[in-house]
Write a structure and sequence with these properties.
Layout lengths: L4 E5 L3 E5 L2 H8 L1 H4 L21 H21 L6 H12 L22 H15 L5 H8 L5 H7 L5 H14 L8 H7 E4 L2 E5 L3 H19 L2 H22 L8 H7 L5 H6 L1 H7 L4 H11 L5 H11 L5 E5 L5 H15 L11 E7 L10 E3 L5 E3 H4 L3 H6 L3 E8 L6
Parallel strand pairs: 4-7
Antiparallel strand pairs: 1-2, 3-4, 5-9, 6-9, 7-8
Helix pairs in contact: 1-4, 3-4, 3-8, 3-9, 4-6, 4-7, 5-6, 6-7, 8-10, 11-16
């Protein structure tokens, strides 16, 4: 069978697959599942073009990884063919642990099980399936490989993952502020003392990258309507879990039923292989199919929430720089309870409040290092002669509260 394929990508054009192992990974059901998980969750309710998937993103990231590795090779960085293929596999599988709607349900359908943990476990499972051929990819993914720069290309504050998702999300949402010069950034990459650095002449491309990331968070990832839709989805899952555990009949797929009926932790994935098997059967379609059916459920709270989300009747959301006071919260809760005739314990399904944060660059989580012509390596904040980057390294917080639009306060 010919496993040397070319994939036509709307962002980069043709993406070649030159490795049989990479083809086998792409062809595996675990990876094909990513076709059924949208990259931006419910964001297409705000930006109708945002229907791209984790499958698209993973292939695009692999393409950029290939370019980055070729560039480093051309600059004399030692990367053998095995390391090249392993780095491709690591970035290809970096998001394979995402569940339905990507980030939205990590802390409701599961009990604080981060997708990175699951990606590592899935890569390990695939490594067994491929007789150890992904051992190096796994070490690159988790940072134990001796060449640290390979891990930095997969996961850091200037990694291939971020380069692709900014390019791709900007393209599919139509938000031009997210556009970055990914090709130029890749050309500016080098390795110094075993770590990834950016040549000094690329510093303005890095400033644009950080600025684009900051703007994409406020305009796309943390768009107030996206936050509202996500909170509604979480309320639906929490209500469904409560009903399921009380013995109510909830028509849904067996794998979704499995997670609704119990609290699943990281330890459960490690100790019980059937948990991962159920998880790998889950995708966005399980959730949407259930929501369509639950719109007619006899439980009025579940049916109302599902109908509202299906019809894009999203919660009203208010963002402020100050956290809501206790009196404001009580007033909203009281209005919801009175107008909907709810028990006090059920108001939480129609009202949520909290904080969203945005920082384009967090030096404490790993620097973006700039390589001067003199050979000196400095953090981008110290190397930049513009105040923008310094400002973008500060955490900005906004406080939200959201509730149904038909509730009058």
């Amino acid at each position: 069978m010919n496993k040397k394929k070319i994939i036509n990508d709307p962002v980069y054009g043709f993406i070649p697959i030159r490795s049989e192992l990479i083809f086998d990974i792409v062809d595996h059901p675990f990876f094909q599942r990513l076709r059924r998980i949208k990259q931006l969750g419910l964001t297409d309710l705000i930006y109708p073009g945002a229907h791209h998937t984790r499958f698209h993103h993973a292939l695009g990231a692999m393409h950029l990884m290939s370019g980055a590795l070729e560039n480093l090779r051309n600059k004399g960085v030692a990367i053998d063919n095995e390391e090249f293929e392993a780095a491709q596999a690591a970035i290809l599988l970096h998001d394979v642990g995402h569940g339905p709607f990507s980030h939205a349900l990590e802390f409701s359908l599961l009990q604080n099980v981060r997708h990175e943990e699951l990606s590592r476990q899935i890569i390990s499972t695939l490594n067994d399936h491929y007789n150890g051929k992904l051992s190096m990819a796994l070490s690159i993914f988790d940072g134990s490989h001796p060449k640290l720069f390979l891990h930095q290309l997969v996961s850091s504050q200037l990694d291939i993952d971020r380069l692709d998702y900014l390019m791709r999300d900007s393209f599919f949402t139509g938000v031009s502020e997210g556009t970055i010069g990914a090709d130029r950034i890749i050309k500016m990459l080098d390795v110094k003392n075993g770590k990834l650095v950016v040549e000094e002449k690329g510093i303005y491309s890095i400033e644009n990258f950080l600025s684009a990331r900051r703007l994409m968070y406020w305009q796309v990832y943390l768009h107030k309507a996206s936050v509202s839709a996500e909170k509604m989805l979480i309320s639906i899952i929490k209500r469904a879990k409560k009903l399921s555990r009380k013995g109510h009949d909830l028509f849904c797929s067996p794998s979704l039923s499995f997670f609704l009926s119990r609290d699943v932790t990281s330890e459960d994935f490690v100790q019980n292989g059937s948990v991962l098997s159920h998880f790998m059967q889950l995708d966005d379609y399980d959730i949407w199919g259930a929501i369509k059916l639950w719109g007619n459920h006899k439980d009025s709270i579940l049916s109302k929430l599902c109908t509202m989300l299906l019809n894009r009747n999203l919660f009203r959301i208010k963002l402020t720089s100050e956290s809501p006071g206790r009196e404001e919260i009580k007033a909203i809760e009281s209005s919801i309870q009175k107008q909907y005739g709810l028990k006090s314990g059920d108001v939480k399904y129609f009202f949520s409040h909290g904080k969203v944060t945005n920082s384009a660059y967090i030096p404490s989580e790993g620097e973006i290092s700039i390589l001067a012509k003199s050979g000196e390596v400095r953090d981008v904040v110290q190397a930049a002669d513009l105040p923008n980057i310094k400002a973008m390294s500060k955490m900005v917080s906004k406080y939200y509260r959201c509730w149904p639009k038909d509730i009058s306060l």
